[in-house]
Amino acid sequence: MGEKGLSRMKRIRKRGIMIFLFLMPSMLLLLIFVLWPMLYSMVLSFYEWKPLKDNVFVGLANYKELLHDKLWWISVWNTLYYIALNVPLIMAMALGMAALVTHTKLSKLFRGIYFMPTMLSLVATGIAWNYLLGTNNGAVNGLLNACGLSSVKWLTSGKIAMVSIVIVTAWRWAGYYMVMLVAGMLGISEQYYEAASLEGARPWQKFWYITLPELKPILVFIALMSIIGSFQEFDLFYMITSGGPGTSTYVTGYYMYQTAFSSMRMGYASAMSVVLFVVILIFTLLQNKFTKSE
Amino acid sequence: MKKRVFSIFMAALLAVGMLTACGGTKESSEDPAGMPQESGQAGTEDTGDKLVLTWQSWDPVSKYQPILDAYKEVNPDVVINYEQISDYETKINTEAAGDALPDLLSCKVGNTQMFAEAGILEEIDPEDLKSDSAYNFNDFWETTLDYATYKGKMYGIPVDGGNYAWVYNKKIFEELNLEVPEEGYTWDEFLDTCELIVEHKDEVGVNYATLINDYGIKTLLPYMWQNGVEYTNADDTVSNLDDPKTVEAVKYIQKLVDTGVIPPIEKLDEGSFPIVGMLNSGSIAMGRVALWEALKLEDSETLDWGIMHAPRGNDGTKGEVLYVNTISISSTSENKEAAMDFMKFATSEEGLRILLENTTDPQIAVRKSLKDVSVSQFATEKNAGIFVDALEYCKWMPNVLTVNEQMDAASRQLDRIWYSGEDVETVLRDLAAEVNELLKK
Hints:
CATH class of the largest domain in chain B: Alpha Beta
Strand order of the largest sheet of chain A: 1-2
Strand content of chain A: under 5%
Structural class of chain A: mainly alpha
Largest sheet of chain B: 8 strands, mixed
Number of helices of chain A: 12
Distance between the termini of chain A: 42 Å
CATH class of the largest domain in chain A: Mainly Alpha
Helix content of chain B: 40-55%
Radius of gyration of chain A: 25 Å
Helix content of chain A: over 70%
Largest interface: A-B, 35 and 42 residues
Shape of chain A: flat
Number of domains of chain B: 2
Order of helices and strands of chain A: HEEHHHHHHHHHHH
Oligomer: heterodimer
CATH superfamily of the largest domain in chain A: MetI-like
Largest sheet of chain A: 2 strands, antiparallel
Strand content of chain B: 5-15%
CATH architecture of the largest domain in chain B: 3-Layer(aba) Sandwich
Low-confidence stretches of chain A: none
């Protein structure tokens, strides 16, 4: 190897050290506050947690219990039901709002207004919607009554409570995903639309044959992100229904919280989190695969 | 070259900065001079050689500041570092795992058994307290001591707490010539009264006679007790949730809804604040109000109100819920003697008098001698002494380890009755079976 080659190697090595040094702070943070707790909860899932005594190794007992835990399976089913309702609604609302605001005069103002719910604290959102959707004294029912309609048991009916939460979630997140879709729509070449106009295409045909196919990668990304987010959803359920009425809004995130912080069964809750982690990992891999191929 | 040196310097600075930031919290918790904002006593005080005790609780420091100040006056060499903690149980358990427990810790209902079982609390010998004549241990209400006891051992001393009584709208009651019985309405009388109010609702301007805020088991317990059935059997091994008397109690609540005297049961905010709001707006004529929230009604410019006993069973049996907060010493404290000294001061007649006279949210007096002090902030005609009289019959669930899980189970199962209209006997049988399994643990 010549002198040139040696100095090039040196440069590369020094550059590597520099990169490492710059990455180190964030890597350390990630290691301490993300990776370590993640790994520790995996370990904890094989133990019965006792704060002042030695943790008791229970092997796969927590996972076996999970298999036979009726409430766990109810919460899994409820989560899937929530995702089935929630994800298409969020996508439809985001797409609708994006289509409405992209080329309007007050586009930026509307974008800001629709994005606003995302900026609110989840706790404040939960409290506000609790008051809005109250059965006996809620504002929404007050409005319905004033229009001569009967009250709806938004949060006190096992059949409607999940729908109510879905409405709140869509209200909160649609604006967030709308921003991505607006960016995508602005990136579509005007030439496509001009050519379509020359061919006599109607507005919905332009939307169906140009806008939607062009937005496909973003829509796939949004769908997967919403699914992952829905699996992790906890705050709104905790604030609005506390899993009720009965078990109708018991989702995995809420049940995990109850097990860990109400029953103080950290080991068992960790087993739940590991299972949930595997499911979310699968969806993340799927997301990577789809977005990569697009 | 300069660029490279600068880059290395910046990277190193970032790393050091981050590590310093990570260590900051630890330092502030160890150094009382840099106390967090919600700490008691002067945050900028130089503690020097003073003995520092840490006391953690979920309540804001303002609640206990008068006691902290009074203790500081008589014990200038001891600094009490009070810390308000959110997500309390998790924090205490985590501190236990990390060998970082405070010297003193508050316990609310459900905490004593959880912390005692985990080995977090130091056992207290009641005989030591009894032998101190100045402390007058026998002055405590017997029922309040149960909250500090687990498996027959004492782990703390009661400090404060609260219970419920019924607030009624005097104007409405006068308009309808309704007399409030001295000992409270029996169930039948209560239903008759509610029906009479609803019959005249347009005249008196209410929507309903009252309402029931759904607190899960906390809603049901008073009615069970009033109907003469305990939550569990004598040795806390089997629940009485499927007892015919419990079924009767639930059906009585259902009857209140079915007859239209109360609206369908709904989960409002935790606490009785929504009921205070509805009483104030005149949409209900009476309601179950917690002691610590009742004083808010004093600000009302429109409502003339009084306090009455909770309804009682038709045979006169009374029952209501009582919450008691206790204070304990952690098992790992290195200053147990000093911690006990403070604990005795805080729960002495003098300490509790300071607390009760200065708090903005009235608390129940855990000592009999302070009976009148806890309600001294209420005007005499409100009859607030009922809150204290109720200590004769108020109580709570058994001090078993799975109490939180039982409460979760009750909320889940009772929803089936309140919100899905399922058969009462079937649901209570399911609930009893679930709770019995938990009691076995």
